[in-house]
Backbone:
């Protein structure tokens, strides 16, 4: 049991590091076509392995994105229950997303090339 | 199936724990995150047709422990602001604290100017301190205006005690209140008055909860900011507010009494003023020793040396008899009587007498040996005036007022930062 822990921990730490820069751009990407409310975002992200450690951690992140002016929020009536806070991509968010996509492609290509060198 | 009330209480407890862990955040940000979580949980609960305890547990499990939320928030906030003061901060603080004693307002201006180059202090702090400097400057201008509008005669003759008190108050604001509040505002950022925020470095790396694991919450380790500490902070704020009110009220009362006492003249207890030379009927309502003083306008025509002083002659040829007739009360002349001064009047004691029976008396006053002299004023009053007391009252009142203002500001700041910036 104890022997396994370092490996588990290492994997979690690695995932966390990789996730850190990526997740906010994933959220921006999810908002590119349409506005969404937070549980919707959570649902999509949770459907993909390793993207959310726990659902609630998205709220500090959304709060920061809103503070940074990358997303904005609007209250909308919901068909059932109380009004919901919907998130939209702002122009700054749009630009940040495009920049990320551009850099990510270059980065991923570089990573792939180097990782393949001695296979 | 569970009791909805129990479920609501559980959710409320959960949110309260998150609230405590995010205590270091500004209220609006904390509120935003809490609202998001509350909506999220409500949304998930609404999707259930029949909520059981384990359903709710699973929802909260998925949302994450309060520690996980706090750790995520710490990552978003980035590393905490640099707290080690550099040259700019040190110069600012020295100018504020040391300059207060020597060059109050100039140092406040220097500190304000230097402060804007600092990266440690936020825009909000800088704006508030700049406003404080402006208030200090305005107060100093007011002080100067009052002091110098008296022209050659100075503040005393032109404006009297009220002017002095107002100008003293303005001086206290510009020289003490402004820099002290400014120093406190800026200093707390350096000497970490506030609760230490959860730092990005210290944030524990979040473990994904094992799907089959027992719900660890609500038997969590005690949160970093425990309720007892928060309660203590709130109590401290309340005491601060009470103390501020007591000081403000006490200071105002002390000030009012001492001003009344000073303005009332040197004889606060039923002092009577009569025109002299002349005859007047006065009422002396208690037995005891009374003093008669010659009160004249100060700063009259200057003598040949350029100084104005007491007139050379006083109407000290005095006679006091009971109004209903009877034996004249013996009056002891006072040589080199003590001089006194309020700010718009001056006087010198010229005589003293003692009566056994209170009542109405007739006082006749004239210049010695039937000489003629200018019309002037005599004051008759009990010999128990203590100007030291009134002046001490004045000083204490001013101190209490400014300290009260300071504490009120502190209490307000504590209130509006949710108690999190004060411990």
Residues:
């Amino acid at each position: 049991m104890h022997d396994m822990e370092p490996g588990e921990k290492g994997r979690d730490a690695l995932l966390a590091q990789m996730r850190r820069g990526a997740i906010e751009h994933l959220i921006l990407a999810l908002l590119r076509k349409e506005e969404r409310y937070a549980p919707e975002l959570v649902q999509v992200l949770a459907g993909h392995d390793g993207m959310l450690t726990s659902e609630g951690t998205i709220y500090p992140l959304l709060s920061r994105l809103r503070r940074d002016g990358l997303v904005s929020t609007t209250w909308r009536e919901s068909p059932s229950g109380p009004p919901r806070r919907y998130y939209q991509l702002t122009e700054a968010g749009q630009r940040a997303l495009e920049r990320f996509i551009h850099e990510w492609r270059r980065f991923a290509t570089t990573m792939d090339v180097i990782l393949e060198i001695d296979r | 199936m569970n009791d909805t009330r129990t479920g609501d209480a559980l959710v409320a407890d959960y949110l309260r724990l998150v609230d405590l862990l995010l205590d270091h955040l500004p209220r609006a940000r904390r509120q935003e995150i809490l609202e998001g979580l509350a909506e999220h949980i409500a949304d998930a609960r609404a999707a259930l047709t029949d909520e059981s305890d384990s359903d709710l547990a699973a929802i909260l499990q998925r949302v994450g422990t309060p520690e996980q939320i706090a750790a995520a928030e710490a990552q978003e906030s980035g590393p905490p602001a640099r707290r080690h003061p550099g040259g700019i901060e040190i110069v600012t603080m020295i100018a504020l604290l040391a300059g207060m004693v020597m060059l109050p307002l100039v140092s406040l201006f220097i500190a304000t100017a230097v402060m804007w180059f600092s990266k440690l202090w936020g825009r909000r702090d800088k704006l508030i301190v700049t406003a404080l400097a402006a208030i200090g400057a305005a107060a100093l201008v007011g002080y100067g205006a009052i002091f110098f509008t008296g022209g050659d005669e100075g503040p005393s003759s032109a404006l009297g005690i009220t002017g002095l008190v107002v100008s003293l108050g303005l001086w206290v604001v510009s020289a003490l209140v402004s820099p002290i509040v400014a120093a406190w505002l800026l200093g707390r950022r350096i000497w970490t008055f506030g609760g230490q925020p959860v730092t990005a470095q210290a944030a524990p790396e979040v473990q994904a909860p094992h799907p089959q694991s027992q719900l660890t919450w609500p038997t969590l380790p005690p949160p970093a900011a425990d309720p007892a500490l928060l309660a203590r902070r709130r109590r401290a704020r309340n005491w601060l507010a009470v103390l501020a009110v007591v000081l403000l009220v006490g200071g105002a009362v002390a000030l009012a009494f001492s001003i009344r006492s000073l303005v009332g003249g040197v004889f606060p207890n039923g002092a009577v003023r009569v025109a002299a030379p002349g005859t007047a009927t006065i009422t002396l309502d208690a037995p005891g020793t009374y003093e008669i003083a010659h009160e004249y306008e100060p700063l009259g025509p200057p003598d040949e040396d350029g100084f104005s002083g007491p007139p050379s002659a006083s109407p000290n040829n005095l006679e006091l008899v009971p109004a209903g007739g009877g034996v004249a009360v013996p009056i002891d002349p006072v040589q080199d009587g003590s001089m006194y001064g309020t700010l718009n009047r001056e006087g010198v004691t010229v005589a003293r007498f003692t009566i056994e029976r209170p009542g109405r008396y007739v006082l006749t006053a004239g210049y010695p040996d039937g000489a003629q002299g200018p019309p002037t004023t005599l004051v008759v009053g009990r010999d128990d005036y203590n100007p030291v007391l009134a002046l001490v009252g004045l000083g204490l009142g001013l101190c209490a007022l400014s300290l009260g203002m300071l504490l009120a500001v502190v209490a307000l700041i504590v209130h509006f930062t949710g108690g999190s910036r004060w411990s």
User: Anything to note?
Assistant: Chain A touches chain B at residues 9, 12-13, 16, 20, 38-39, 42, 46, 53-64, 66-67, 80-82, 84-85 (CB under 8 Å). The two ends of chain A are 32 Å apart (CA to CA). The first helix of chain A runs from residue 5 to 30. Chain A has a mean pLDDT of 85.
